[in-house]
Amino acid sequence: MIHHDLKKKTSRIIYLHGSDDVWSTLGLIEPRTKDSVSIVIKGGSHCADVYPSRSSDPPQLKKARITVAFYFKKMVVGRIMFCTDKR
């Protein structure tokens, strides 16, 4: 994906790239905000992280999935905890 407007305000984004993904040069390796995170899977290929887990997955892919789950939970739970109902 080519980022046409890199100055848009965004938050809570997990940037996930494989080091061997031909598209990774178009991705954001450095997160733009303090509440976003970038993960590079050494030896990872395009979309390897979205396939179902297998016992034969490389350790760095398994670790990346755990890291994504950790940050996703932190971002979602943190967001829910601080939301207020303004009805």
Automatic annotation (TrEMBL):
For this entry, list what GO says about its biological process.
proteolysis
Keyword annotations from UniProtKB, A to Z: Glycoprotein, Hydrolase, Protease, Signal
By its UniProt entry, which InterPro entries does this protein fall under?
AB_hydrolase_fold, Peptidase_S28
Keyword Hydrolase assigned: yes
The record's annotation in Pfam families points to: Peptidase_S28
Q: Which GO terms describe its molecular function?
A: dipeptidyl-peptidase activity; serine-type exopeptidase activity
Q: Does the keyword Calcium apply?
A: no
Q: Which residues form a coiled coil?
A: none
Membership in a protein family: Belongs to the peptidase S28 family.
The protein, known as: Uncharacterized protein
Q: Which organism is it from?
A: Macrosiphum euphorbiae (potato aphid)
